[in-house]
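Thread: Newbie trying to understand structure tokens

Hi all, I'm a second-year student working on a class project, and my supervisor (Dr. K.) asked me to get a predicted structure for one chain before our next meeting. I've only ever worked with sequences, so writing a 3D structure as a token string is new to me. If someone could post the tokens and maybe explain what I'm looking at, I'd be very grateful. Here's the chain:
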Amino acid sequence: SYDGAIRAFDYSQKLLHTSTPHSAPITSICVVPSSASSPGSHLVASASQDLTARLTRMTLPSSPSEQPKAHTVASLHLHTSPVSSVAANPSGSHLLTSSWDGLIGLWNTSIPEVDEVPLDDLAGVERKKRRRVAEDEDRTRRKAPIMVIKSHTARVSRTVFGPSATSVQAYSCGL
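---
Reply by user tm_fold:
Sure, no problem. This is what the structure looks like when written as tokens:
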């Protein structure tokens, strides 16, 4: 959504939960497949114009008395322009991000114990804003990509993995 929110609905289109992991419009979203997740718990990857992609754990209620929960567990930092898309492979072990900066990032979906990207690496963020960002991201781990692919000379619009669960192919398109 343009307000930076992820919304979960049931089949009758009733709003179940709203989470706001981004401070700018969300450009792409995908549910990360996982055989290890508990029922009602989903890992959602989102890309945004705030130059990041994020992994958010959403737990939807199994009964009306329970409250839905959402917690951003990792923030993916690589791009210097808006992130245009995020895609998960069929097994849920890896993500691809693409950006207007011409880069494609390959990420694993494991949540690190400690930050992989120091907070000081935020380019162009003034001191007061940096302090506010640090307070917001106390619980969110900052991830670094496992590989950066520079295969485009301009904006990358979309990346996707091949359809086979055993496939190691990925595709991208751009301007």
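A couple of things are worth pointing out once you decode it. Residues 12 and 64 are 15 Å apart (CA to CA). The radius of gyration is 16 Å. Feel free to ask follow-ups in this thread.
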